[in-house]
Design a protein that fits this description.
Length: 248
């Protein structure tokens, strides 16, 4: 009897636990993504800055001169992939299970024109896009960790034709990340203070500012990689690593 009761209690706590893990993995991924874009955007400073960041991520003891251990980046990529899949799996619970549920939900969104409900849809669609493109990108990075750098990364954009993947992924990830963080803050009541309604408005503005900031940073970096990739193609030097200030 008691064990049946225990079972019931355990079952009823399950959705809250899964919700907590969805939020926790989402928070980790959002923080990872913002850091990741800052690192990738080092190309805006110079090729040497990007090379320095790459070597630092590889655990080089002297990033200005020596290569490190790309295996560190591969391990990091596998860890991120695991968190990514867990997060997506937990989020999938909330998608409508069948066509009928989907239609009902869509008509509600149309009828209500409620900002937060529309955002839920943006989250679901961008999440779906990211699941495929994001995992492809992570797997490419995990298996090519020794081929990251100002020239080889740029060649991936242009000569390997991955620029459309990066372009779509950039918009999906920035929208998804900023909306996700806003929803987290509202859901768990962080920074609510004395006036939660005013806080919600403030957070909406912050969400917009963060989206715009990272989108602009991402697009500028995108343009920089494209420019270098096109130059390498014109010079016939595709695939050759950047050799530092004095090298190619
Ligand atoms: C540990 C895992 C990851 C590593 C090591 C990594 C590394 C990189 C590198 C080196 C680039 C520059 C282009 C290249 O070399 O091909 C890049 C670009 C990019 N990555 Fe990642 N990435 C990781 C995870 C992710 C995830 C999970 C996402 C999103 C779901 C993502 C989204 C992007 C986007 C959108 C760009 C293009 C940025 C731009 O055009 O400004 N990355 N990544």
């Amino acid at each position: 009897m008691t064990s049946e009761l225990d079972d019931e209690v355990r079952k009823s706590r399950m959705p809250a636990r899964l919700d907590f893990w969805q939020s926790a993995t989402g928070l980790l991924l959002a923080l990872f993504m913002w850091t990741h874009l800052m690192l990738v955007s080092s190309i805006l400073i110079s090729k040497d800055a990007m090379l320095f960041v790459t070597r630092m991520m590889e655990g080089s003891t002297n990033p200005s001169e020596e290569a490190g251990y790309p295996i560190i980046v591969s391990i990091l990529a596998v860890i991120v992939l695991i968190i990514f899949v867990v997060h997506a799996g937990l989020a999938m619970r909330k998608l409508p299970a069948n066509w009928k549920q989907w239609r009902t939900m869509r008509s509600h969104v149309k009828m209500m024109k409620h900002g937060d409900t529309t955002q839920w849809w943006i989250q679901a669609i961008t999440g779906f896009i990211m699941f495929f493109l994001g995992s492809a990108h992570i797997i490419i990075m995990a298996t090519n960790a020794d081929k990251i750098g100002p020239h080889q990364s740029a060649d991936r954009f242009v000569s390997m034709g991955l620029w459309p993947l990066y372009f779509i992924l950039l918009f999906a990830v920035e929208l998804h990340g900023a909306i996700g963080m806003y929803r987290l803050i509202v859901k768990w009541g962080w920074f609510d203070g004395k006036d939660p309604v005013a806080n919600r408005k403030r957070m909406k503005k912050l969400k917009m500012a963060i989206s715009v900031f990272f989108l602009v940073l991402g697009l500028l970096s995108f343009a920089a990689y494209m420019r270098i990739g096109l130059q390498n193609k014109a010079d016939g030097t595709v695939g050759i690593p950047y050799g530092g200030e004095s090298g190619h």
